[in-house]
Each structure stands twice: as structure tokens, then as C-alpha cells.
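Re: the 661-residue chain
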Amino acid sequence: MAAGKSISGAVKGGSSSSSSSSGGGAATTLSPAPPVTPAAKSAAEVVAAAKAKADALAKSAVQKYTYTKPDPRAIPILTPTLKGRKVMKFVLANRIQVYLVSDPNLLTSAAALCVEAGSWQDPDEALGMAHFVEHMTFMGTARHPKPGFFDDYLAANGAQMSNAETSSQHTDYAFACPHKKFLQALSYFSEFFTEPLFSSSGADKERHAVDSEFEMHKDDDSYRMYFVEKFLASRKHPFQRFSIGSLKTLGHVNHAMLAAWVRKHYSANLMHIAVYTGLDPGAVRDDIMSHFSAVPDRNYTRPLVPQPMLDKDTEAKIVHLQTIKRLRSLTMKWEIPPMFDHAPLLRPDRLLSSVLGDEGEGSVLSLLRKKHWALSLSAGMGGEGRDNPTFEVAITLTDKGQSLWDQVVKLVFEAIRRLQLDGIPNYIFDQIKLKDTHSFQFQWRTSDAFNSAMGAASAMVKESLTTFPRVSSVIQDFDAKACQALLRFLVPERMHLLSMGGVPAPQGGFPRREPYYGAQFAIEAIPETVIQDWQGSGTSSEITAPKPNMYIPGVSPGSQLRPSAINPNGPVFPELPQPDLVLNETFGTLYHRQDDSFGDPWLSASFRIRTHKKFVETMGAEALVLVSLFVSCAIEHIKTASYPFVTAGLSAGLSLGKGPY
């Protein structure tokens, strides 16, 4: 579970996609007094100055690159249809890191750039500045001053989309387009970072776009709780400030302020580029070098935030949100030291998550389900930025569980106590590594180049380019001491408990109000007797570590995954392979097709159970309701028993379909 939310820019020049916003309350003035700024230049003067600066940068740019050293522990990709994929990793002279994937099977090309600057660097007098810069970056360049010229080019050439996203400590920009137009689009894209114009003619439109993102989540309970968390965070930490931006906080921001903020925070040595393309990698590499070498390297240092994010005043307390919807959820949250996020080789959080978040026999959730106290439980590392990780356990309760919420939490502490006493078995690490390796070696063919590029650029922030993406994708080392060190922080007296209907509402109601979304909330101290009961938690005989999962390929001898042969003369899309009829009886029919098109070591099965049309004709809407209820109950009933299969790689679903019978 990720607790943080990013600010997502509006989709530009293509089909719409979902976007998320972040922000939060703070003891800040909604309408800060605008600072004294120099007289605005005319549009022509701004364009001329920007073009002159861009020309000077281009002339002074050093046109060269350096390949990274080979990864000494590289894992080969075994997906047969990815044999033609080529990967280049290199660094430009201005220290921009580049991850380039060339795959002839890709349907489109995409590029993304991540810069390590975000909303935590907003000036106090212009909260939301980083988000506004993200929007304004698309409003023309010195060579192409028309606002939205880039999106117009993409749309005219059948491109999918361009988009951008602002987070606490980085901002991502990306686009996708047909292969034959990619190199030209890449040239235009580079101008955003060498000669941005921040045209005043587009400022009002983008200000309103930012404001609409702020307004759009006011009725979403998860965002309302997020804003309350920000409002209650440490006054010394940037997390507590409003970060989306609005007409009030950005109304006075002009071209000069935007340009000054970019000069202060954007630098080539803090940028990462990811490209997915079907073009020749050498040609794309040379174009990247040609266009992005002019991005200024200002030799900035990656910003660090050493202060604690959560306020100690909310430790051992319940934060109650007055929800709009009828919810029954609890989140147990602990802030943990940055070292747990800065040591990607160990990842004790993943080992703890695997055990505490297990859903099989002997798990916390299986016991909660038996008692009819909870419907779901997830565990994992969350947090904001790179320096303020949290460990969180989120639980969806039943009505019965809500009335016994303290006993639900106690069971979690009993599971934690079991891990402190027994440790995490080595085979848990071995199984996670096996599954990670399988996913990496037999990864799916890339169908969405845009999101692949955007995700890769963002992930490059946390890993050395030499090993990327191996360390991010496959757990590396097992350290029992690191697991115990993390467990020592998961104690009742340091826990922040967030309730969205998970704990009965306090008698005094919800007297406090967060200033941006107006979310009402209350803070209630957890009774000392309850804290002491949790602190004295023993171990339940009904909660045990997950047993070795023999269904994971590689756990049992001789069960390794292997690719299958591909028929080079097989059908080519749009022609489709035809299955063979192997069974045709009164009970039903069965078709089978041996894969010789992709070679993946996976199978796909689909079963359709038909009901007679008179079933609906006789019972009407009641029939649909009953069948929907049956499907939900069946899914719930098999969750615990099916979990070992799910963790081994099975993806299964049961749903109500439509048909002619």
C-alpha cells in the first residue's frame, strides 16, 4: 500500500486518463501577498531572450556520452518474443542518465524525463509552484512559442498522449507517438528543458487546470484523510504544506517567477530519461545526445529532508475522519528511519509485508475472517519522498470488527510479536526472490510504451544506472538483523492510527476542520489500558508463518519455468490461431490450443457457465442480484484456500457475464 499521492497533470493532446492530486492542509495563508517582481517584458522580448539563450546553450553543449559498466549480476530475459530487444544505458556529458529500450515489436515509441525537483521545493509565497511549472512547461518554447505546439504536433500525427506528474521530490514528463514521428517529437520534447518559454498567454488556462485538479477530489474520502494527515504533520516538514496549487496561491505567479524557480531547481545532473522505441537504438541514442546535451548542468545536490514527517503528538492516538461514504477502515502507521528506504539491496519491509500481509492459512487475515472481523488486510512500506518512509497495515473491517477494533489491532501486534520471537524463515526470502526472478525473466511484452517509459524514468531515481532495473525488480539479499531492526519500530506507543469509520466515532463528534478540503476530523488518545494490553501481546497459536509454497515454480525439484518453442510459420495478426475441439458432450465443450506463438511458460483458461434465459425472464432483476451476491460470496469463500496459488502466479477471477442464453 502507498500512502503518498502525486499531483498528476492534465492529459494533453490525446485520450483522457485518470489523474491524481495531492495536497494538504497547513498553517499557511491561503492568499499570500505577492512579492515585488520586476516589470514584465513583452512577449516578443521574452521569446527573443529565450531563443538567444537556447542558441548559446546549444553551441556550448558537449556532444558525447559514456556507456555504463555492464551489470555483473545481470539476469537474462527469457521471454522468446523479446529476443530482439536491445537495451542501452549511458550518461550524457551533462550527467543526464539515459535508459533506452529498443524493441521491434513495440507498436509506438515513448520517452519520459524525470527531474528530481518537486512540490516540497515550492516557495512559501507560491504553494503549488512545482505543479504549475509542470503545466506551464507545455506552453511553448523559444523555437516554437505557440502554447500547446507540442500537443498539436502529436495530435496531428496520430499520437497517443503527452502527460506529466508532480510528486513531492520529483516531476515526470512523458509522451508517446508513432515510430516514424518519434525523433522529431523527441527534438521538440527536449526544448521543454533547454528553452522553456512559460508563455503568459497560456498561464490563466493552466492556472485554472491546476485549480480544477485541486477541486476534483474534495469528495474522495481517501484524499480527505490525506489532507488531514498533511495538516497534522510536523510543522518543520514540507509534507504539511499545501502542494497542488490553486487560483489563490498561484494567482500572482508570472513568467519571471516560473523561470527563476526552474533555474533554481532543475539541473541535468538530477535528470533521468527512459525511452521505449521500435527504432534503431543507435539513431535514437545520437538524437538524445544531440538534443538533451544542451540541458544546463547546474551541479545541484539531491535535496534531502532529514526532519521527521509525522508529528509525535499523534503517536498513540486515533485520527477519526468524518467520512462521506460508509467506510470501515483502519490504518496502523509507523514512521521508520530513512535507512530502510536507502538500502535497496535488503528490503526487510518486503519480507515483513509478505508475512503480515499473507492471506493463507495461519495468517492474521485468515483468523480475522474466521471471526468475521475483517474483509481485507494489506501491509507494506509507504511514505512520502525518499527520506520519510513509513510502514503501514491497512484493514477493512466488518461491523462486528468495528466494535472490536482494539482486538483486531491486538491480533496484528501478536503477529509482530511472533516474528520478533521466531524471526522470518529463510524460505520466505527464497520464495520472493524466485517470484521476482520469474517475473523479470519472463516479463510480458510491452503493450503500453508510454507508462513503461514514465515508470522507468521515475524508478531510475532510486537505483544505480549500472544495475537498473534489476535491483528494483528482484529482491537481492536476506538480512535477519535488518528485519528485527524494522520490527523494533513497530510498537504500540509509536503507532499513528487512522480511522475512516474503523473505530466508533468519538462522543464529541468531529470538532476540527482541515482548511483546504474542509474535512472534519477528531483526535482521540488511545486509552493507556489498551496500549498496555497491546504492549503485553503474546503470540497466538492460530497465527503462524506461511508454510513453504510448493506451487511456486522452482520450489519443488524439476518445476522450473522454461520457455516453449515458437512456430516461425504461425499466424500473424490479424490472423488468429485456432483452438482444437477436444471434448463435446452434453455437459459442455472443451477447446485447447498449444501455444506456439509466444513461448511464455504461462497458461490461460476461460470457463463459461451458461444459465437459461428463462432464469432472468422468470425472476427479473432479482436473478441478477442473487447471482451477483453468489459470485461475491464464492470469491470471499475461496480466498484463504486459493491464496497459495495466487502467490505462486495464478491470476483468477469469477464474474457475472452476459450471453444469449
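The longest strand covers residues 374-384.
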